[in-house]
């Protein structure tokens, strides 16, 4: 792995020690730090009774109730759940432009979140998009052991979700790290990522140049993912229009997140550490 990316993982792991992941109220805490979900399972915490149905495990039949009432009833227990964080990383080429620090900031941010999850007694998995989603090597370990990052995909997040979606754990906390700079229908993406989860956080990670383009004059722009070429005359009017378009695009993502109860925030790659306060504002992490 590139030394800068390895260094970013090291830095993120260190910074992450200062934070803990906030576990949503949909996942309930027990006395010893484990959590209990609301689905029926096999933990020791008794929940309720219901009538026996063919196929039920006879180990959970309450024979005392049967002796008293001649009715077969089954004991229900609350499912024991270890909270889980699924981190989804945008592996497209736009996340690794040569004049930005987006790739390094992405890994630093993912490392911060993974360690914050460990501090909250949560397991975690790390996925990166390519031609489909794949797990990062050693993703279940601490970030300094991770490997296999390539920000060279010509495919968008939506493309990757169609080809091979990640196997997200039910009731997991999902976090997408992406610049969100691809043609999309945000509400469809948000709906798909939110489905079955306890919470969804979308972290838009932009380079300073994404927000304030420094270019003026006659320029040739090359799309980093499609290789399409556009010759433009960039002046103050062009820059203002770009900023308006970016704001409108962010608003469309914000509206999609609002409809599905997801949280959205924008971080600046070159100012990542000072931007971490945004993660606290959306109640993703808190200081230890």
Structure description:
A hairpin with a 6-residue loop joins strand 10 (217-222) and strand 11 (229-234). This protein has two domains: 3-25 and 83-287, Rossmann fold (3-Layer(aba) Sandwich), CATH 3.40.50; 28-81, no CATH class. It contains nine helices and 13 strands. Mean pLDDT is 87; it is low at 29-33. It is 32% helix and 29% strand. The chain has 288 residues and is of the alpha/beta class. Strands 7-6-5-8-9-12 form a six-stranded mixed sheet, with helices on both faces. It has helices at 3-16, 63-69, 102-119, 157-163, 186-194, 208-211, 236-260, 272-275, 277-281; strands spanning 19-21, 28-29, 35-51, 73-81, 84-89, 123-130, 132-135, 173-178, 199-206, 217-222, 229-234, 263-268, 285-287. The protein starts with a helix and ends with a strand.
Outline of the structure:
The longest helix is centred in the last third of the chain and has 25 residues, at 236-260.
Protein topology:
Blueprint (H helix, E strand, L loop, with lengths): L2 H14 L2 E3 L6 E2 L5 E17 L11 H7 L3 E9 L2 E6 L12 H18 L3 E8 L1 E4 L21 H7 L9 E6 L7 H9 L4 E8 L1 H4 L5 E6 L6 E6 L1 H25 L2 E6 L3 H4 L1 H5 L3 E3 L1
Parallel strand pairs: 5-6, 5-8, 8-9, 9-12
Antiparallel strand pairs: 1-13, 2-3, 3-4, 6-7, 10-11
